[in-house]
Amino acid sequence: MNTPAYVYDTTRICGNIQKLKTAFPQFAILYSLKANPYPPLVQFIASQNIGADAASQKEVMLARANGVSPQHIYYSGPGKTLSDLTETFGHCVLIADSFQELERINRLAKERGVEQEVGIRINPDFTMHGTPGIPSKFGIDEELCIKDAFAAFPALRITGIHVHVQSQELDWKKIARYYENVFRLAVRVQQEIGHPLSFINFGSGIGVPYQETDAPVNLDALGKHAAELVAAYRPQISATLLIESGRFLVCEAGTYITEVLDIKRSRGKTYLIVDGGLNGFFRPALSAFVGDGHASAEPLFTAKDAWRITSDATTPETEVVDIVGNLCTASDILAEQIRLPRAAAGDRITFTHAGSYACTLSPQLFGSQKKPEEVLLPQDTISH
């Protein structure tokens, strides 16, 4: 295998899919393509009866090309142009992010002489943390979702809602309270539109433990609470219930591999110069100079020291090193002052948590270096 490279473990992905299906048997699961749009990966996940959460026209078509049926593709990104909507019309479930998008979809429906079913993304008057609703670039403010507002679009039938307020949450109790708020919102929307919803998209939010001190989401407890909510609201809600997987399916199933090109010792510091530094895997480079406490920067930044870094060097001797890339910039740093086995040129270094928001977020054109390869391992193949 050439380096730099991203390696994705299908066995691990299947295990994560099963975890969600076991915890949430009453829900359908959607794969968030923005987490990792590598086509063979998308195709594999689709083969496991997982739908698609698409944030762009291209992601809709990527899902279609890799085996996802239109009724299981939910297109909810903001800023959809008339061209986006025209190209995806009939290829997905459209979720309007604004009144302007509703107007555009209404226009297309009139031109085709159909009543078009459409979902709406709502910016709710709640968050996972119980604070009041806040301004957002995403969705229509909850207080504006009233019957009279939707009456302006006679060619449309509102059939679903989509809510998402936070990613990367590890506290199952906060997620559970959020689910309950979404159910309450759905009941109110049904009352406004005067007919039952056919789907409710609860968004993502189920986080992945990055740092050693992180505890994973208690899926057993969350699933039990979700089942209780479903039972309580079923007399009022008959809709299909959806959960976006976010990074959960793929983050820990991906490994980034880079090779030591040179070793430089300069005035008391040792640098391992590797191929594919920040241009290969940007997130560790960003965390090297951002610091802690930037949750609003998701998914660019999650936490400092959010990767386990290992080397295949076999020597028992260790040393403290900085891992830097081969770009002509001093900011090309993947890790600072970490202890690894003493390296030699040709040794390989691996980074965990590289299955989501990794390859696609990296500035691969910077420096005109070679782009990372991506490899999808068959099931039951050991990836490290």
UniProtKB/TrEMBL annotation:
KW Acetylation (keyword) present: no
The keyword Lyase appears for this protein: yes
Cofactor: pyridoxal 5'-phosphate
Gene Ontology MF: a single term: alanine racemase activity
Orn/DAP/Arg decarboxylase 2 N-terminal domain span: 13-250
Domain Orn/DAP/Arg decarboxylase 2 C-terminal: from-to ranges: 6-355
Family annotation (Pfam families): Orn_Arg_deC_N, Orn_DAP_Arg_deC
EC number annotated for this UniProt entry: 5.1.1.1
Keywords in alphabetical order: Decarboxylase, Isomerase, Lyase, Pyridoxal phosphate
Family annotation (InterPro entries): Ala_racemase/Decarboxylase_C, DAP_deCOOHase_LysA, De-COase2_C, De-COase2_N, Orn/DAP/Arg_de-COase, PLP-binding_barrel
Top-level taxon of origin: Archaea
Catalytic EC class: isomerase
Protein name: Alanine racemase
Source organism: Methanocorpusculum vombati
